[in-house]
Amino acid sequence: MHRALRLFFVVALASAAAAQRPTQLHIHFIDVEGGQATLFTLPSGESLLIDTGWAGFDGRDAERIAAAAKRDGVSRIDTLVVTHYHADHVGGVPAIAQRLPVRRFVDHGPTVESGAQPTALFNSYTAVRDKAEHVVARPGEALKVGDLELRFVSAGGELTTNALPGGGQPNALCADYKPKDADPTENARSVGMVISYGQFRMLDLGDLTWNKEHDLVCPNNLLGTVDVYLTTHHGMNISGLPALVHAVRPRVAIMNNGARKGGTPEAWSTVKNSPGLEDLWQIHSAVAGDAHNAADMFIANVDESSGNELTIAADRDGSFTVTNPRNKQTKRYAKK
């Protein structure tokens, strides 16, 4: 074959292969029955996991995470963020590390809770963490995972004082604020972050509680707006401050509640009434929610324990789709 012709075919094949490579970020909101485990897989093959669900249950949560990773061709976790040291967030670390090697751990530093159970939980985590790279999240700093950027806005009880791009505007919603009792627990020390993939932005504040949420958006909204909001603290009414939820104006909210945990009517209504919200999707139908549940197509699990996830496929231009694998319902949200 003529050299020029061979070169043409090589270039053509390379171009065709490049065109077939995936370009979307995949996000799996794993059902860990009222805890958190959110898996991000990138077109480059890199991965981010935020929290790991519970220990026990015959490795149920770790198996669900590993199965989602396998579907996306992921064989390791490049970065694992532990938002805080409660059993429904950090409990599954040893089990997931047995299934998928973890290269880097991110957390807020030492625990603030004492006693036999919190100490045992923290020690079982650090026994795994200390075998890998360890990063302490600092509010105001950023971390890259491939093409993902994590901007930390809370960690260890501290909050960012600098506005993120698009943030910094006065927040008139702060006038109605009523503080709750100070929270001395790990919840108030949650690692919170805005996660960006090109123009796509998602907010995850772990289990950050009411008063800390206030200080992120009052008197000025330091966060700006987002496309997707993972409801804080599973939709419990000690989080989900209206002045924050309404200020960030999510297009879509994902409520990672359990059948009997989270999804409280107060938090559900705050999200549902958020200006600009197009849809609220839920991991579970809340048993006590009555009318405070989304329509069936937007709920991954309509009984108490099925293990169905919700997924997002996001493009760099800010457009994305949400899919409910239980009923094969998919909805696309165009770029803005």
In short:
The protein is an alpha/beta fold. It has eight helices and 20 strands. Helix 5 (116-129) links the parallel strand 5 and strand 6.
Provide structural commentary.
By secondary structure, the chain is of the alpha/beta class. It has one domain (22-333): Metallo-beta-lactamase, Chain A (4-Layer Sandwich). The chain has 8 helices and 20 strands. Strands 6-5-4-3-2-1-18-19-20 form a 9-stranded mixed beta sheet, with helices on one face. Strands 7, 8, 9, 11, 12, 14, 15, 16 and 17 form a 9-stranded mixed beta sheet that branches. The protein has a two-stranded antiparallel ribbon with strand order 10-13. α2 packs across α4 (93-99). The protein is globular. It starts with a helix and ends with a strand.
Strand content: 25-35%
User: How do the helices and strands follow one another from N- to C-terminus?
Assistant: HEEEHEHHEHEEEEEEEHEEHEHEEEEE
**Which class best fits the helix and strand makeup?**
alpha/beta
- What ranges have pLDDT less than 50 throughout 5 or more consecutive residues? 7-21
Task: Give the secondary structure arrangement, pairings included.
Elements: H1 3-20, E1 25-29, E2 38-41, E3 47-50, H2 60-71, E4 77-81, H3 87-90, H4 93-99, E5 102-107, H5 116-129, E6 133-136, E7 142-145, E8 148-155, E9 158-159, E10 169-170, E11 192-197, E12 200-204, H6 210-217, E13 220-221, E14 228-230, H7 242-248, E15 252-255, H8 265-272, E16 279-284, E17 299-301, E18 310-314, E19 320-324, E20 329-333
Parallel strand pairs: 3-4, 4-5, 5-6, 12-14, 14-15, 15-16, 16-17
Antiparallel strand pairs: 1-2, 1-18, 2-3, 7-8, 8-9, 8-11, 10-13, 11-12, 18-19, 19-20
